Amino acid sequence: MVDGSWTATNQFSGIGWAWKDSLGKIQLLGTRNLQGRETSLHSELEALKWAMENMLQHSTYQRFGTDCKDLIAMVADPQAWPNFSTELEVIQILQMCFPEFRIIYIPRAQNGIADSLARNARSFHRSLCFIGCSILVWLLRPPQV
Fold first, then answer.
1. Taking a C-beta distance cutoff of 8 angstroms, is the pair 113, 67 a contact?
2. Which residue from 14, 16, 97, 137 puts its CA 20 to 30 A from 52's CA?
3. Each residue of 63-80: pLDDT tens digit?
4. 51, 16 contact by CB (below 8 A)
5. DSSP reduced 3-state for 94
6. What is the largest CA-CA distance in the chain?
7. Coil, helix or strand for 2?
8. pLDDT tens column, 133-143
9. Are 4 and 46 in contact (CB under 8 A)?
C-alpha cells in the first residue's frame, strides 16, 4: 500500500508505504518527507517509486495498492500523461524488475496506514526518512494500528 500527501502551502510533501504479508500482517513500513512536489500526483508517483525501490530488496513478487485512481491510470498508460514522463520512465524501469507487477485500487478507508504515514511525514518540520517493522512512538498512530 502506498500513499502520497501534498498541499500547496506545506514545505514538505509526505510519502508512506506499508508492506503486508498474505495474511494482512505488516512486515515493513516506510515514511519520508521530500521538498514540496509540484502536485499531489507527483507525491503519489514518488511514493510508488520509493516503495518499489524498497521492495526490490525483499521480494520482486509484489502487488502494489493505492487509493489514487489517477496513479493507476498513469502507470497503465504513461503516454497519456506527458507532464509526468520523466517520473513514469523511472516507474517503467522499476516495473521490469517485478515479473508479475500489478497495481490495484484500494479504497481510502483500507489505505489508512500508508495515508497516515504520508500525512505525518508531510507535517514533520525537518527532514524525515524512516523504514522499520513498527511505528515509532513519535509518529502518530492511525486508528487501524
1. no
2. 137
3. 899 999 999 999 999 999
4. no
5. helix
6. 42
7. strand
8. 876 655 554 43
9. yes
With beta carbons less than 8 A apart as the criterion, state whether 45 and 6 touch.
no
> N- to C-terminal Cα distance for the chain?
14
The residue type found at 31 is T
The contacts of residue 135 (CB under 8 Å, 6+ apart) are 29, 117, 141, 145
pTM here?
A: 0.85
Q: Where are the beta strands (DSSP E) in the chain?
A: 2-5, 12-20, 26-35, 63-66, 102-105, 129-132
Question: What is the rounded CA–CA span in Å between residue 120 and residue 142?
Answer: 10
2: phi then psi, degrees, rounded to nearest 5:
-130, 155
Cβ 90 vs Cβ 51: under 8 Å: no
Under the banding of pLDDT at 50, 70 and 90, the label for residue 26 is: confident
> In the structure grid, which three cell numbers stand for residue 42, read together?
507527483
User: By the 8 A CB rule, do 133 and 21 touch?
Assistant: no
CA–CA distance, 44 with 16 (Å, rounded to integer): 9
